[in-house]
Write a structure and sequence with these properties.
It is built from 5 helices and 9 strands; from the N terminus they run βαβββββααβββαα. With 224 residues, it is of the alpha+beta class.
Length: 224
């Protein structure tokens, strides 16, 4: 997939419903040619998101303290919360050229982690198996989840990368439809390696560099 420049947008913590509503506007603006391809980096308060095809038994119990939010992206249930970096891609695929956008995101995150000194891999999904889309450690613990939507050749949604997430939250439900998979974080790996956990800012910068994004652009003129 070709890699023209992405406009980098840095936000802080944004409630999930507010972010998805803003994302609809960004997609409309991209369709209209009012904005360039965009990478939005942000965080969310605790929330578990899931798609319409997620089986009810994979969701947390009704008394879970974490709110649930049904989404229109691919992928199964996942958790967002403090200590996790979320990246949303609003990209016009026709203008970027043909290619597998999900693999492009996987490979970009692998490059970003390499810049930070962490080894990571993407995995092919065997025929008939539950999707292995995402970014993994070489021992196959999961570091990042990916779920995309493509409508009229413009993408939305993106990835969630665990920096210092509360990994216990992933045990409240079946993460990514993979009950046997352990979720991990850069903090957990760094502790095992006897090194400091990278800061969120350093992770943001590595991700932006890996995807060829511009210096941060302000959204002050746009409604959130």
């Amino acid at each position: 997939m070709a890699e023209p420049t992405l406009e980098r947008i840095d936000l802080g913590e944004v409630p999930y419903p507010e972010a998805t509503e803003a994302m609809k506007g960004w997609v409309e603006s991209r369709h209209a040619g009012a904005i360039p391809d965009r990478l939005v980096l942000l965080t969310h308060p605790p929330v578990i998101t899931y798609g319409s095809r997620t089986p009810p038994e994979e969701l947390p119990r009704a008394d879970s303290p974490i709110p649930l939010f049904e989404v229109d992206r691919g992928g199964q249930a996942t958790y967002h919360g403090p200590g996790q970096l979320v990246g949303y891609f609003v990209v016009h695929l026709e203008e970027r050229g043909p290619g597998d956008v999900v693999r492009w995101v996987e490979n970009g995150l692998v490059r970003a982690l390499d810049l930070l000194g962490f080894e990571a891999v993407r995995r092919d999904t065997p025929p008939g198996a539950q999707s292995l889309v995402g970014v993994w450690t070489p021992s196959h613990d999961k570091l990042a989840s990916i779920g995309m939507r493509i409508r009229n050749k413009v993408t939305s949604h993106g990835f969630a990368l665990n920096i210092a997430s509360d990994l216990d939250e992933f045990t409240r439900f079946t993460a990514c439809g993979l009950p046997e998979v352990a979720m991990t974080s850069l903090a957990e790996i760094a502790t095992e390696q006897g090194r400091p956990t990278p800061t969120e800012e350093s992770v943001r910068n590595a991700v932006a560099q890996a995807f060829g994004a511009t210096p941060p652009v302000s959204l002050a003129a746009e409604a959130m």
